[in-house]
């Protein structure tokens, strides 16, 4: 019985030693983490929309002078844009007309008359000059005139928004088409270069076929690839 007790104590001691060894090894093999500072200073807050104001000529940010010239030419010669511009001018003229009703109307008149009295031997000439100035003014007691002006101002703002929409749509379509065309040209150049490479490989295979280093099926496969 004493031997069994001693054996149990030895087993317990061995278990404790094993746990201590495992804990020591785990602590020694654990990776040491170091805090690394980021290569740039992060802002405290970030806006999803950004803070930079987009220029009216936003396409100039691409730095493509050819594209800038094409869009500038389109802005001057596009009929839809010119129509929208004339509508904007018309709406602004209507605003000026309605605003003029808020001020008095002045009307000036002038007249001249020459008279000759008497006989042929004794006559007398006289001249009469008449000047007149009149003014009319409508009191805007109920705000009718002011409401009409505000309505035309809102209509002019809407027309200006329509003009901006036409200009933005035009410039966006030209830019999209321009870079699609550039992409197609680059793809065409890449295909031409690939064809030249495949033809060179075909010629090398034909040369190796003469020395029986390749088979005829390799030549056929390369011709199909071309």
What does this structure look like?
- With 226 residues, the chain is of the alpha+beta class.
- 62% of the residues lie in helices and 12% in strands.
- It is built from 5 helices and 2 strands.
- The protein has a two-stranded antiparallel sheet.
- A hairpin with a 4-residue loop joins β1 (105-118) and β2.
- α2 (65-77) crosses α4 (144-210), α3 packs antiparallel against α4 and α4 runs antiparallel to α5 (216-225).
- It is elongated, with a radius of gyration of 46 Å.
- The model has no long low-confidence stretch (mean pLDDT 78).
Summarize this structure briefly.
The chain has five helices and two strands. With 226 residues, the protein is of the alpha+beta class.
Descriptive terms for the model:
226 residues; alpha+beta; two-stranded antiparallel sheet; 2 strands
Percent of residues in beta strands: 5-15%
Task: Count helical runs.
Answer: 5
- Tell how many strands the DSSP assignment holds: 2
Largest sheet: 2 strands, antiparallel
Q: How does the helix and strand content classify structurally?
A: alpha+beta
Low-confidence stretches: none
Distance between the termini: 91 Å
Mean pLDDT: 78
Widest sheet, order of strands: 1-2
Would you list the SSEs in sequence order as H and E?
A: HHHEEHH
Helix fraction? 55-70%
Shape: elongated
Q: What Rg do the Cα atoms give?
A: 46 Å
């Amino acid at each position: 019985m004493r031997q069994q007790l001693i054996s149990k104590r030895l087993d317990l001691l061995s278990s404790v030693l094993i746990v201590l060894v495992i804990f020591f090894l785990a602590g020694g093999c654990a990776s040491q983490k170091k805090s690394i500072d980021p290569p740039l200073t992060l802002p405290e807050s970030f806006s999803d929309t950004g803070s930079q104001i987009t220029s009216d000529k936003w396409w100039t940010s691409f730095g493509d002078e050819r594209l800038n010239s094409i869009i500038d030419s389109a802005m001057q010669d596009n009929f839809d844009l010119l129509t929208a511009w004339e509508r904007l001018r018309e709406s602004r003229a209507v605003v000026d007309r309605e605003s003029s009703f808020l001020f008095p109307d002045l009307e000036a008149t002038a007249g001249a008359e020459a008279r000759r009295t008497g006989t042929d031997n004794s006559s007398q000439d006289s001249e009469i000059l008449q000047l007149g100035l009149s003014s009319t003014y409508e009191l805007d007691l109920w705000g009718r005139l002011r409401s009409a002006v505000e309505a035309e101002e809102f209509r002019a703002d809407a027309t200006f928004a329509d003009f901006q929409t036409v200009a933005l749509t035009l410039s966006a379509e030209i830019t999209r088409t321009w870079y699609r065309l550039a992409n197609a040209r680059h793809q065409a150049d890449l295909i031409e270069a690939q064809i030249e490479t495949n033809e060179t490989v075909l010629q090398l295979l034909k040369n190796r076929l003469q020395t029986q280093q390749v088979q005829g099926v390799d030549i056929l496969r390369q011709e199909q690839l071309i």
